[in-house]
Amino acid sequence: MTASAMVAEFDDVAGWTADAVERLGERYAIPAACRGSANPAALAWLAEACELRAGSVLLDVGAGVGGPAAWAAERFGVRPVLLEPMPAACRAAARLFGLPVVSADGARIPLRPGSVDAAWCLGVLDTVRDKAAVLREIHRVLRPGASLGLLVVVARDPDVPAAPEGNSFPTPRRLAELLDGAGFDLVERIERPGDAPLSWTRRVERVAAAVAGRHRADRAHALAVRQSESFVRLFASGQISMELVHATGRPAGRPSEQSRVEDR
Ligand SMILES: C[S@@+](CC[C@H](N)C(=O)[O-])C[C@H]1O[C@@H](n2cnc3c(N)ncnc32)[C@H](O)[C@@H]1O
């Protein structure tokens, strides 16, 4: 992931977001640091689907500035471990939430096999070229049978004209194949539930305005705005949409549901 627009969006803007939250106050931190479009309803669905419980280790792959993981720690008492390749985003997450952050790529997770109780990967897969490698790595570090929660931008058709720089969107069918190939059973998938409450949206907008106020003239800011405008256009035209997915890791050696159906 080297596209300059993505570095702008996921690194420069991540650092500026943490600066703005520090100026505005702590209650802005979680909404502003949910940068993969997860809202409280989506996070609650994922947390319940994955049966998060106090004390369990939740690995957040592509954690960005750490909003979703911090939300899960605050509401469900999990012990999050954040994994994120962008240096300024790692520093921003550590500054805002004091959570442990591993600076690494999702295709090479520096954790032992079976060492985490649940994993999230929210708004990340469409930014990753080798989606299968990331899913395989998550499967390796998850406890056998444990849950994976995904928020994924999916495409209606395999080719999306004018996709934002560095993004490639799987179709729902391709996503199911990728999960199966990586050793996951798909439990459930839904459209992202409803809108965020106004008080959440207003905090997100206040932080975005504070960032724009200081950095509007910066090239990285213009690139990030262009990325988000092209997402808005694609969502509005129905070419892409957002899904929440709950899957569980198959223990090694157990055939997939799909192959068991085909064997019958
Ligand atoms: C849209 S942001 C979502 C951030 C966070 N998950 C959230 O919901 O707030 C996508 C994140 O994926 C990260 N990312 C991109 N490629 C990655 C990879 N190969 N491995 C892990 N993370 C990656 C980016 O750096 C960025 O922080």
From TrEMBL:
Positions of the Methyltransferase type domain? 59-148
The lineage is: Bacteria, Bacillati, Actinomycetota, Actinomycetes, Streptosporangiales
Protein name, UniProt field: Class I SAM-dependent methyltransferase
**What molecular function terms (GO) are annotated for this protein?**
methyltransferase activity
Q: What keywords are annotated for this sequence in UniProt? A: Methyltransferase, Transferase
Tell me the GO BP annotations in alphabetical order. Answer: methylation
Under which EC number(s) is this enzyme classified?
Answer: 2.1.1.-
State the superkingdom. Answer: Bacteria
Q: What species was this sequence derived from? A: Actinomadura yumaensis
